[in-house]
Amino acid sequence: MRGRRHSLRLRLLVIALAWTLLSVALAGWGIQGLFRQHIQAQLQSELNIHLNHLTASLQVDERGRVSLSSQPTDPRFSHPFSGLYWQISVPSAGTRFAQLLRSRSLWDAHLPDLVDGLEPGRDVAMPASGPGGERLRMRVREVHPAEGPLDTLILSVAADEALWAEPISRFDRMLAVALGILVLGMGAAAWMLVGFGLQPLARLRQRLAALREGRAERIEGKFPMEVRPLVEDFNLVLSRNAEGLERARMQAGNLAHALKTPLAVMASAAQAEDPALPRLVAEQVEAARRQVDYHLARARAAAAVRVTGLRSPILPLLQGLVRVMDRVHAERGLIYDLSGVAEDLVFRGEAQDFQEMLGNVLDNAGKWARSRVCVTACCQDGELSIQVEDDGPGLSPERAEQVFERGQRADERTPGSGLGLGIVRDLADLYGGWARIETGRLGGARVIITLPAT
Prior knowledge:
50% of the residues lie in helices and 19% in strands. By secondary structure, the protein is of the alpha+beta class.
């Protein structure tokens, strides 16, 4: 039962059926009301026609005798208690009327007397009781003959409410049947519409099942435009997961390969009982540590890229790195210029990754600079561009590309492992940016790192 409450198909069907029932009910109520008004207006019009006929046929002689030049043609006036009646009367004592003429349908009865409310030239419609106690709709008119001794005549026409109640009841039954058939048809249409509309989701579930069972690597097929963004995002997640898995496998293989050589060297020296074993072990352990730090930095950056909302101000980070560089290269008296870095610039990522990249670049610039290292940064078109240049000898274009390869060094005579600039490019690539070296304005190398800023 809980699963049914969370069914999208059931929700759509309930909404469609509820709206259908509400719409049909309102439509039925409106149609029934309009038909009732039409029947009542038709009855009032028919009574008015009979009243006009009586008025046109009315004759009064000089003795005050009232007659009709022509009898109403409706046969119901001749059938006793048929439900359609007319009479002509004159005011007698008070509010009582003296009946002069009446239809045969009244037999020996008469229509009710009108107490008040009559105005010359204006008809009055009112409910009344018939000869058998039935409810009547009566229309009354006051007439003043131009000839004869009678000043006022009262003309009345009445009809049994059953004459219009029965057609309305019959119409209501027919309307209920028609609307019921309409509800069933619309319910069936809603069922088919929901089933047809949810077919892409069923097809998507089949593709996901094939993906889960290993029969497919992506969600393929044509889907509606409303479902297509979901499929594309899901395929993008699958691609990123596949890339992350491949990257993890490559890093594990690279780390294993990088550690294999130091371990082999130490094992060989231990078997040969080399007297320089302590120094050799220390060197190889340091090499292994650098390899482990390198791969851990890549793994940490890959995880940080997937985290949203990370923002690291870069000026405080650069100032901290410069303080470290001042101690590392204290004997050279280098000047690190950060005047080209605005205070409001931020890096969208982990502060530790930013320090890893810029720390390697600043350290490398400090090794080759003669007296000055200049750092500038700007943000444009959603990209954060950081430039670090020195006044050293610089690099040729061919050599500038080679130093980004892991294990390559610009000069074998300087200390280092050759991993610094390699990890700079790798981390920048993980964040969706890039890094390159060109000749700067100071005559030395200029390292440009571009990273996403938004």
